[in-house]
Amino acid sequence: MTDHPHRTVAAHTATVTHRYTMHYPSHEPREHDPHYAAFAAFRRHHAKGARCYVGERAGHAQCTGGLELHHATLEFAVANAADASALHKDYPEIAADATADDVARWLESSPGEFRWLCSYHHRGAGGAHVASHADWQAQLYVPGLIT
User: What does the alpha-carbon distance between residue 88 and residue 29 come to, in Å, rounded to a whole number?
Assistant: First the structure.
């Protein structure tokens, strides 16, 4: 084994591509969700003064577009297939034997489940729906990490 002297890696840019297949369970259209009213009420009552979750940490210089409300844990489209016992490990307020309806109710009415994101940090290159979780999380603390 050869000893290598410590060398600093120079700043660099890398193109990253993620490609995989999602297996969405069947679900009703969003507007037919009986718990959507709670989500809409939260959005209505908290929109004034809302700021992008990422921008509040790494600065708002990259924030673009309007603010959108994001589910921090589960998206509506997969909520009805969530394993309640798995959720219970991280969210003890959800019973291990909760029904899909119980999970949906929690998802749409739990204030800690919502994050305000600008459209860039929600659906853009630096978005929660686009960047890998590790990269999205890192950009909270490293301004300009994702472009």
Answer: 26
88 Cβ partners below 8 Å, 6+ apart? Answer: 94, 95, 96, 98
The type of residue at 90 is: D
CA distance 78 to 81: 6
d(CA 119, CA 69): 10
| DSSP codes of every residue in the chain | -------PPPP------------PPP---GGG-TTHHHHHHHHHHH-TT---TTHHHH-GGG--S-EEEEESS--HHHHTT--HHHHHHH-TTS-TT--HHHHHHHHHH-GGGEEEEEHHHHHSTT-TTTS-HHHHHHTTTSTT---
- pTM for this prediction: 0.83
Distance between CA atoms of residues 147 and 145, nearest Å:
7
Residues, the chain? 147
Give tens-digit pLDDT for 84-135: 999 999 999 999 999 999 998 999 888 788 999 999 999 999 999 999 999 9
